[in-house]
Specification:
Mean pLDDT: 95
Strand content: 35-45%
Number of helices: 4
């Protein structure tokens, strides 16, 4: 079973400018207002774990399961009590002189569809705004 949400933007920001905001974990709070704190236990590469605390939530353990410089990264959280795997995927694609950025949330597991329908809107509601912030930061419009 699977549940998926996806949002994309087109920007003039370069893949490298977007990537700098992705691989600097301490900057995640600048573009994602739902993050209270994030810590990573090593370099920004596959297999490294970290903790992410969202406003009003307990810290969540995540693992960087996919990291391809200037192209994509996925951070994965396992919610064992719900038998759910949550993948937060961040993709960068070159479209001529522009850049397409896509953020996805993919829930998988036996209850993924039911849980996704219940908590998905809460998890994903801030993604369009965080992508707008990411875009503005990458273009240098805000700092």
């Amino acid at each position: 079973m699977m549940w998926k949400y996806e949002n994309s933007i087109i920007t003039e920001a370069t893949p490298e400018a977007i990537w700098k905001l992705y691989n600097s974990v301490d900057k995640w709070k600048k573009w994602d207002g739902s993050i209270l704190e994030v810590k990573i236990n090593g370099p920004f590469e596959e297999g490294v774990t970290g903790n992410l605390t969202l406003l009003g939530q307990e810290p969540l353990l995540f693992t960087l399961t996919e990291v391809k410089e200037n192209k994509l990264f996925t951070n994965t959280t396992i919610l064992e009590q719900l038998s759910i795997k949550m993948d937060f995927r961040h993709e960068i694609e070159i479209l001529g002189i522009q850049t397409k950025v896509t953020h996805s949330v993919i829930l998988s597991g036996p209850n993924a569809e039911m849980i996704g329908n219940q908590i998905g809107p809460m998890i994903t509601q801030g993604i369009p705004n965080s992508m707008s912030n990411l875009n503005q930061l990458a273009r240098g419009d805000i700092s």
